[in-house]
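User: Structure tokens for both sequences below?

Assistant:
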Amino acid sequence: MATLRSSRALLDHIADESLAAPVRVKEAKERGAPVVGTFCVFTPWELVRAIGGISVSLCSTSEKPIAAAEAHLPRNLCPLIKASYGFALTDTCPYFHFCDIVIGETTCDGKKKMYEYLNRLRPVHVMQLPQTTEGESARALWRAETERLKEVIESFYGRAITDDALREAIRLKNRERRVLNRFFAVARLDPSPLTGLEILAVSDYLKCSMASEEALGVVEELTEALEEERRRGKGREAEGRKRILITGCPLGKSLHKVIRAVEEQGGGAVVAFENCGNLKSSTDLVDESRPPMEAIADRYLHIPCSCMSPNPRRLEFLSRFREEYAVDGVVDVILQACHTYAVESFSVREHLKGLGIPYIAVETDYSQGDEGQLSTRLNAFLEMI
């Protein structure tokens, strides 16, 4: 058996490869690969892969381009929307620069209207989400929207999406989800051998790796290295830390301040993420035994996003992950002006109270000016648990 690289060496490799991701997108573009920009886990990745394309995330989490975006967008808008539009407007996002077309979705009114302006910079196709996941009418609408997206992609690129290509894409994406789920499960160990920032780094690495076998192999090797190191007794120095699950809005580098407040200042350990991406997007697989377009549509419709009403699966996920990861407390991260997550925080609080799980909601944006305040609040929360 080949000697495993250490987990530290593998995490360093992942960090280096993530920095090189824009170069890989440029190289793929130069080879003639379709490059499709997306904003949400509702966008069916398999349809892009089925034409030999790559999907790049355009969700931005930096405050740098927000001032430019506010020339067109209101100041009291979600920072993710403003940052994403600002990068596109100033042409300072390499992923947007190289993408041919953008696939949007009606997860919130702010993004829906922003897409109208984004369409001036790149062709934008918006998928119309139903308001609920319940009932045959919602299912029929989303299946029709998935078929319409297929037709748009085929027409835009002049390439047919075959069932065989879809089945291959489904198998590959399901493999990626299984690899991620096994990696996430390492944090179930007590104490977890991973920090919250390391969990996010690996998740982001796969997001920008184009689902290559090489990248999947690296994450599998990392998982095995972490498991082996624990068997040899490494990583027990973090015993006694309160185990925290983070839920809510998408996280990115500007919101690492929340994780730092929990782990570095508060002495806690972030062991799971139930937000956009991470466990929410990797838990469910596409059923490989069914007709591919139906299976893809049904799988993506049931993502438990706060834009759906009602949204019982989010509460089911929180109950499940609370037990699987032995969670001591939940931190709900809400971006300013994200109304669906802000409104839903009350039902999340009630649900977790019924389970006896301490909960705190923190509202923030991409600036670092509230880092001290976050540390104070989250320190008090951890002391209370």
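Moving on to the next sequence.
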Amino acid sequence: MQVMAIFLLIGLNTSCTKTETPPPIVIFPTISLSQSVLVNEGTGNAANAGITVNLSKASTAEFSFKVTTSDGTAIAGQDYTAENGLVVTVQPGELFKTINITLVGDDIFEMDDSFTVSISDPVGATLGSVTSTKVTIINDDTYTPEIAADGPITPDNYPGMTLVWSDEFSDATINADNWTHEQGAGGWGNNELQNYTNMPGNSSVVDGKLNITATKPAPNFYRSARMISKGKKEFTYGRIDIRAKMPIGKGIWPALWMLGGNISSVSWPKCGEIDIMEYLGHDQVKIYGTAHYDKNGHQSKGGNYVLPNGGSYHEQFHVFSIVWQENSIRWYVDYHKYFEVSSTSIEFAAFNLPQFFIMNIAVGGNWPGNPDASTQFPQTMYVDYVRVFQ
């Protein structure tokens, strides 16, 4: 009887015990931004920069977070509309959310600008590893007559940018603080025919223009000039404008270009080369822009621009420009973009270092071929100015 009582008590105790179900474990979604965003500025019309917020999983309940912007080179109110603690709500089942930041469009030819978008203070979610992203506003404006016109440099002519250096060739002689003459013959790596000199007949300033002149003082003998700013004026990034008028004739090969300031230590092409403008005298309607770089040996990528409506680079001045930035280089003629390279299309490391200017006329060589009986000498490239904006 005592044994049975014990079993009855155990049974009673067991039947009275209540097992409680633990509350479900709630796993909040993790939210994270993309690493960077590129967006065209637009001209006159407001455009939006769409920033994607990615969720690790769809939420089963509504949640929210805050969005804040901060200036970089882009200025709130001038380039984009600021947000300061904007609350964004995400509905159940959504896997991403797009934040739209309104841009301010204009028709000013300027550098790309950037600002930062950050997310914070999630309610019902957790922050991931990327909580802020750089938004780059790509300037897509082109030619405006006020900017391209020859004239004094004023903020009105070049809004949105700062002139950091220029040579207007307004002195009576070439400024030795800016330029050095490279001299000599030897083909210059392209089987060229000219002998570069510092003689006034091959380079001089006349009426506010730099004259670089190729001459033929004797049969099969050519002289020219090659001016460089190495060690004197070197730059990394910026908008560069060179206004110039080209010579003419078969075998005439002028160029406005840049080389890495470290060429003496790393050699070419590891130093990088930016050809702002190259031109062949037998084709007066076309110019070329090219980037040369090292990637297991010499590589290059370039484009060209043909003047519309039968225009000629020989008959009148044109503005040759590049917009050179941390991850891209764009080429323009009279502020019309015709070519672009980026850190995703070429090996870009050499173009994150200082480069110096070169201005020259080569005679003959592998690309244009040699002069023939139709080529008249002397031939002059006229350079009105070189301007660097940052």
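User: Anything stand out in the second?

Assistant: The domain at 145-389 is CATH 2.60.120.200 (Jelly Rolls).
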